[in-house]
Specification:
Number of domains: 2
Structural class: alpha+beta
Bound molecules: adenosine-5'-triphosphate, magnesium ion
Distance between the termini: 93 Å
Amino acid sequence: MNARDDARKMGAWLDSVHAKGDPFAAAIRSTRMSMLITDPRQPDNPIVFANDAFVHLTGFPREEVIGRNCRFLQGPETSRASVRKMREAIAAREDVFVELLNYRKDGEPFWNSVFISPVKDESGEAVFFFASQFNISRHKDREHRLTTDKNYFEEEVLARTAELEQALKAKTMLLHEVDHRTKNNLQLINSLLMLQARRVTDEASRNVLRATQERIEALGAVQRLLYQEHNVDTFDLSAFIRDLAGNLIAAGGRTDIETEFQLESIEISASRAAPIGLLINEVLTNAMKHAFVNERPGRIVLAARRDGDELRIKIADDGVGVRKDAPDHRTFGTTLIETLARQLRATLKRSDGNPGMVIEIAMPLDSVSK
Ligand SMILES: Nc1ncnc2c1ncn2[C@@H]1O[C@H](COP(=O)(O)OP(=O)(O)OP(=O)(O)O)[C@@H](O)[C@H]1O
Ligand SMILES: [Mg+2]
């Protein structure tokens, strides 16, 4: 009890030297900020003064506070590290600021924002410590809520991403399956045509079947390119033209026909890939079939470019040009070309290449890019 008496005495002394009329003392007594003064020269640095706000904040009556070290505010959840930080600063007679969990007399915890500062005399000795406390529980609650909400949303995003990845995987698998079946079906049609062609004795009919087979192969090339790319919505026209030309020349076994590509990279809608692929196949097949007869060597130039809002394709050969013995009846190839052109809103121009033949196809880009 001796120590507490000393603390009380010191408090009373402080009171007396800062009696009524001292505006600083009055301010400390009546401020809403909880404040304490401790005496480090007494054993265990006891509280010698506590204002009304401190009593209100902690729920401890003043007589239970004076003479005790502040640690009675600590409890089971108080951070040891924060306490150590305070203790070390006090021992070193330095200012310290900590936020720590304290407990009221009724046991209710609250977040306390504590600032402690030594009060030194002329010789530099710490004669008092001044401490202010501020309840920041609401602020801490909000902080806690924010982190909980953030964690919740992060988990939601992760879960949703996983779902979408799963859905994408399923979609990709389906797409591969459809692609696989389409290729199989095209192959099946090709085999049917081949079997049929073998049984047909009439030369003309056999040629018709063979030409149809080639058209199916062109569709196969379109299909191959469509699903080779990551993006299945669009179709790389220049890649297709290269692919098709390579295939046709290889299939014809013509090492004496050169190709020259003047191709801009042009993406067209996947849904327009088949008609445009077939159209180019017809024109290119014609060049291969009709321009370089009697082992005439030569060169085919394949160009594709954007021109304003038009797509322009040019297929030029330096072969024999329009032949005198060209069929005077309407051929299937020409009908097919015209039908496809109409479908694509394309215009076709055939001109003399001197030598050879030049076919120019122009179509509005918006009819192939949507
Ligand atoms: N690049 C070319 N060089 C020379 N003649 C060509 C060329 N392209 C087309 N022709 C001529 O135009 C004709 C018509 O071509 P079209 O594609 O309509 O018929 P086809 O190729 O003879 O038969 P198919 O119906 O199998 O296509 C050809 O028979 C050929 O005489
Ligand atoms: Mg033809």
